[in-house]
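Purpose: get a first structural picture of the assembly so the mutagenesis plan has something to point at.
Setup: two entries, given in the order below. No constraints added.
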Amino acid sequence: DQQVKQNSPSLSVQEGRISILNCDYTNSMFDYFLWYKKYPAEGPTFLISISSIKDKNEDGRFTVFLNKSAKHLSLHIVPSQPGDSAVYFCAASHSAAGNKLTFGGGTRVLVKP
Amino acid sequence: GAGVSQSPSNKVTEKGKDVELRCDPISGHTALYWYRQSLGQGLEFLIYFQGNSAPDKSGLPSDRFSAERTGGSVSTLTIQRTQQEDSAVYLCASSPRDRRLAGLGVNEQFFGPGTRLTVL
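Result (structure tokens, whole complex):
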């Protein structure tokens, strides 16, 4: 039973345009959400996070939106750059589970120059 | 500064053999996590250490899997009698002292590069 889902396995976008990555979750106990970026042969690196008490968090070109009622979050990257080409993972955690992260399956983003 | 390191980077073994995977966390990080990523899948939680104790082992897939952490630092993940379905990238992550207790939110986890395990 996948508690965190990324339904789009891949996304292709033109340089300079917006990339929108989506993530859905089923466990209403999740209270913190994170996005990680992964290049081949490297471990994931933290990108941005959001607490369930907020609906938006912004950091430079990256913005994460949370819709608790829909159990949906999204990551916006604007403007997209070729260096953003990577696999992006959505992850969630809840207080009762300590810091254990539950990950989605990932979305591969390709930014075309 | 040094990040999380893992060794070996690649391991090829025969079915039925035992393997040990090592993780060196960032110095001073008290929490350590093991995850694995099977081909085409997301990351799957295996086990979590706080100091040398493992309060959450719920992700270990079978009793062939075990892990220990000594001195609050290095951790070893051991897989006994490996099976082909154990083939995956095994990732280790560490994070600082739990900030959640101070109401500062979830700690960011810093990942190592992983060990790619192939069981023939």
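The mean pLDDT of chain A is 93.
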